[in-house]
Amino acid sequence: PMSSPDTEAYYEAYTELESPAAYVKEAFWVGKRAYGMEVGFVLVWAVLKSVFHSFRFTLFLVALVNALLFLFSAMGIAGLKQEKSHFARMLALFFSFFALHYCCIAIRAGTSLGLGLLGAWLLLKRRYLWAFLTLYGAMLFHTIAFLLLMFFALTLIRRDKEDFPVKILPDFRTCCLVMC
What is the pLDDT of residues 52-103, one digit of tens each? Predict the structure, then answer.
């Protein structure tokens, strides 16, 4: 949608972006901003612009990546291992909790949440370094990802394997509500 305030800000930044090299030095500092957005996101945006040269296609690509991050990370967390019988259920759950908003309008927050979910999945698999790096990446896209630290803390506290998915998904929904 080209008529939302977020999309208009993304378009304005997209048209004014320099080459990706202009953002590399500052892209890995959490909280640094350019065009009113986190520099990590601006760097990715600049790379996509230099490769595809189309704002609408770039929006589509980011929305697709966000949707895939959400779906497959959530499926992994829930222990569904991408079984076809559970995919429709996960798809319905995904679209009922702000999916279109986070994939198509608030794409920085959506990418941040998607990376946070991926980090939670990695945390469950006891890949702590990768989980930390994924959360760090989430914070480079949207500083509100600091709230995901609380989510990660809940993940570490709630290690009951039997009912973990039942406990973690309400926490994720709460995190989504706070971030919007």
Answer: 989 989 988 988 888 888 888 877 777 755 566 666 676 777 777 667 777 7
Cα(106)–Cα(60) distance, integer angstroms: 13
Q: What is the pTM of this model?
A: 0.73
For residue 38, list its beta bridge partners: 33
Question: Distance between CA atoms of 14 and 35, rounded to whole angstroms?
Answer: 9
Please give the Cα distance from 164 to 175 (Å, whole number).
17
Residues with Cβ within 8 Å of residue 177, at least 6 apart in sequence: none
pLDDT in tens, 102-117: 777 778 888 888 888 8
Average pLDDT estimate for 134-157: 76
Cβ burial, residue 119 (10 Å; 0-12/13-18/19+): buried
Q: Angle at CA 27, nearest 5°, toward 62 and 12?
A: 55
